[in-house]
Design goal:
286 residues, mainly beta, disordered N terminus, 4 helices
């Protein structure tokens, strides 16, 4: 059995667990009464007893085309993302942190062109420390300290790669409203993308909202490009849960800006795509 086949079997198992959304964890999250009142002890116990392998960022499969320019076979494509995490420790490290590995892969697939080429593959592995945050014994979010690499796996003039030391936070203002931010120290080693900060940014901020019954959600993510101008790459997302007890959502994503993919990070894109998304428990990472 090949390594790829083993990985795909393991990934499918994780997806099935995510879709099932185990009720024990949901009850701890207070979904039964549409509240999130989590004590530090109950959450740490859930983390220690829960699966070590799961989803990290949103996992989606979406199809769409350009907004503005005339749709063509070249600017109409499938975009999909696979994102997983492996927790390495229980929450017993200093300051109640835990260590984890993560891996995300984003792909652009031009299915309308001859031979249906996958025009750009972006790989994002890393390792991080996470700390869950509590105020008066109420869970309010988490902090992340990450060392991450991102590249497109190519060589020569098509090679793109950089590294980041990132500090991120997701804060629950209330159970249905979350704000998040992330800033990074870049270490740029790719010869073909020395100016990547001008397009892919220096920090990001965002917010997400969901209805009380968690059926509908909306989010916006702004990534600030280098410079003093108000130049942001913008992502707007809408999601609607198909079945109340499952973790699958109808998904709409609008991307406006540069840096959507590494290969063409200097090209401006305005893309609208629709499809399906599977989300992590608690909230998504960015």
């Amino acid at each position: 059995m090949s390594l790829f086949t083993k990985f795909m079997r393991l990934y499918v198992a994780v997806i099935l667990m995510a879709v099932a959304a185990p009720r024990s964890f949901s009850q701890i999250m207070g979904e039964e009464n549409n509240q999130v009142e989590i004590s530090s002890d109950s959450l740490r116990k859930a983390l220690d007893n829960g699966p070590y392998f799961g989803l990290y960022k949103d996992n989606y499969f979406i199809f769409g085309t350009s907004v503005g320019p005339k749709p063509t076979r070249q600017n109409t494509n499938i975009k999909f993302q696979i994102s997983i995490a492996q927790r390495l420790t229980k929450s017993v490290l200093p300051w109640h942190t835990y260590l984890f590995l993560f891996y995300s892969q984003k792909c652009f697939w031009n299915v309308l062109e001859r031979s249906m080429p996958m025009t750009d593959l972006n790989f994002n592995p890393g390792i991080g420390l996470a700390k869950h945050l509590f105020v008066k014994n109420r869970y309010i979010g988490k902090l992340l300290l990450l060392a991450e690499h991102e590249s497109n796996g190519r060589d020569g003039t098509a090679s793109r790669s950089w590294n980041k030391i990132s500090l991120g936070a997701s804060i629950m203002i209330d159970p249905n409203f979350i704000v998040h931010g992330k800033v990074w120290l870049p270490i740029i080693d790719g010869l073909q993308n020395k100016d990547i900060l001008d397009y892919c940014g220096i920090y990001q901020i965002g917010t997400s909202f969901s209805t009380i019954n968690k059926r509908f959600g909306a989010s916006i993510i702004l990534t600030k490009r280098k410079g003093w101008e108000l130049n942001y790459n913008t992502i707007i997302e809408l999601n609607y849960k198909i079945f109340p007890r499952d973790n699958q959502y109808l998904f709409l994503q609008y991307y406006n800006g540069y840096g959507e993919g590494l290969l063409a990070f200097k090209e401006f894109h305005s893309q609208l795509r629709v499809g399906i998304v599977i989300k992590p428990q608690l909230f998504s990472d960015y």
